[in-house]
Amino acid sequence: MTQNEINWPAALRATDSGEQAAAVRALRDVLHNGLRIALNSRSDVSEAHLEDFAQESLLRVLDRLDQFQGRSKFTTWAQAIALNVAFTELRRKRWQDVSLDALMADGERLTEPAMIADDVLGADEDRTRLVATLRHAIENDLTPKQRAAILGELREMPFDQIVEMLGTSRSAGYKMLHDARRALKQRLHEAGITGADIQNAFNL
Question: Do 31 and 88 reside in the same domain of the chain?
Fold first, then answer.
């Protein structure tokens, strides 16, 4: 039976242990091969990384079988989970040696031109005003921890790492980022910057 012919949800839930184990092995191979292709151009991804990503992705997929609704091919759904696992882990590794002091220091320097690249905020004719307004708002309207959290988010630091570094809970971290985004959004609106501009600039 080819992979396209496998009824993955049924096979992965099979009461026959041999059938289930075969389906699990086949799915792991699918995830591993998909990750290899998707991450082929990444110089920071080794074979060991691919093995780890595939194993973690397999566990995630098995844990979320009930969430599969059949709106796409099962393997497409599973590969999306695998890519999310891989990129989350790569972002985590990128930031694992960054201290809270360093992040807070970066937060204090957010008004420096080099801290927010212009291409993050779009290339339209209003870019200069938008960038200046955003930097002013980050400097004046946010607390130091909010600035650090926003910087971490801008630089794609995983949320759990932001929370851990700030020494707070997930719920408090969500509220901190929500309040920070709301303050920035309000300041941008007051400057006459449109909702589309804000969305493109900061995913608010």
Answer: yes
Structure tokens at 105: 């220091």
The single-letter code of the amino acid at 78 is: A
Range of the domain at 61: 3-95
Greatest extent of the chain over all pairs of C-alpha atoms, in Å: 64
Q: Show which of 51, 70, 95 is a domain's final residue.
A: 95
Distance CA 34, CA 31 (A): 5
Question: Phi/psi at 143 (nearest 5 deg)?
Answer: -75, 165
**pLDDT at position 197, please?**
66
pLDDT at 121: 44
Report the number of distinct structural domains present in the chain: 2
Q: How far from 156 is each of 5, 132, 134, 202, CA to CA, in Å? A: 38, 21, 18, 12
Asked if 110 and 76 sit in the same domain, the reply is: no
The amino acid sitting at 188 is L
Q: Are residues 179 and 193 in the same domain?
A: yes
**Best CA proximity match to 116, nearest among 64, 145, 151, 76:** 151
Closest CA to 31 of 72, 85, 67, 92: 85
Tally: H helices and E strands in the chain? 10, 0
pLDDT of residue 190: 85
Which of 162, 108, 117, 118 has its CA nearest to residue 139? 108
Residue spans of the chain under pLDDT 50: 1, 107-122, 203-204
